[in-house]
Amino acid sequence: MQPTVFIASPVRNRAWVLPAFLDSLEKLDHPAEAVSHHFLINDCVDASGQILRDWASRRQRAVVEEVRTGVVGWNRYQYPHYDFRNLARLRNHLLERFLASGSSHLFSVDSDVLVPPHALRYLLRAERPVVAAVIANLPGCSVEASSAHNFLLRRDGRYRHEPGVPTGIFEVDLTGAVVLIRREVIEAGARYGEHSSGEDLAFCRQTQALGFGLWCHGMVRCVHRMDDPGQTQRLVQRP
């Protein structure tokens, strides 16, 4: 049976990158009839909502939902100025929407990440309960040039970045940003939680406690636009 994929993203003040982000989602080489989209807009003060609603209006399986969290004091929602107070709640809201959708997989993608066309195909083929693409976690860096990525391994009780990125599928202890999650993981109870290091930490710990492994795919390398609107999609390449 063909996997059905629920693509979900919380969005706040991303108008500067949304056209490129949505274009990258459109180019994913998974059958369109097996993909749905759900965008959760929260406390935007820019044109993000209108951009998403215009895009969704031209598609049958795209939903734009708006919530008000009450968080104030941020005009932009970009690295390194994240406020983690509500991210866990927003992501868990999307998990519930995913469960109601009946889809077999959740593809959680941060809205400042540009995914390559082969991303879903490779991640699905990996057949792991949780498998992430790789991004650089330093502004303006490609995956190859960065010394920090969206995966860490736990060594001597601490989460640490590892040098380089393997080219295959490799197990990790912490990941996030661009993650394919099988339904069974969410049904088992894995959820996001508040933490000073980010909501992904609680999710990864719960996932491992439930007996599921965490993995990354070194052949799925994305562009992390972060707070650098000058980066271009030329870095996203099909292998």
Keywords:
Spore Coat Polysaccharide Biosynthesis Protein SpsA, Chain A, 26% strand, 13 strands, disordered C terminus, 239 residues, three-stranded antiparallel beta sheet
Give the helix level as a range of percent: 10-25%
The CATH superfamily is Spore Coat Polysaccharide Biosynthesis Protein SpsA, Chain A
Give the name of the CATH architecture. Alpha-Beta Complex
Strands side by side in the biggest sheet: 3-2-1-4-11-6-12-9
Order of helices and strands: EHEHEHEEHEEEEEEHHEE
**SS element count, helices:** 6
How many strand elements? 13
Report Rg. Answer: 16 Å
**Average pLDDT, to the nearest integer?**
89
User: What characterizes the major β-sheet?
Assistant: 8 strands, mixed
Unreliable residue stretches? 72-82, 230-239
Q: What is the beta-strand fraction?
A: 25-35%
- Dominant shape: globular
Distance between the termini: 26 Å
What CATH first level would be assigned? Answer: Alpha Beta
Q: Structural class from helices and strands? A: alpha/beta
Report the CATH topology name.
Spore Coat Polysaccharide Biosynthesis Protein SpsA, Chain A
Q: How many structural domains?
A: 1
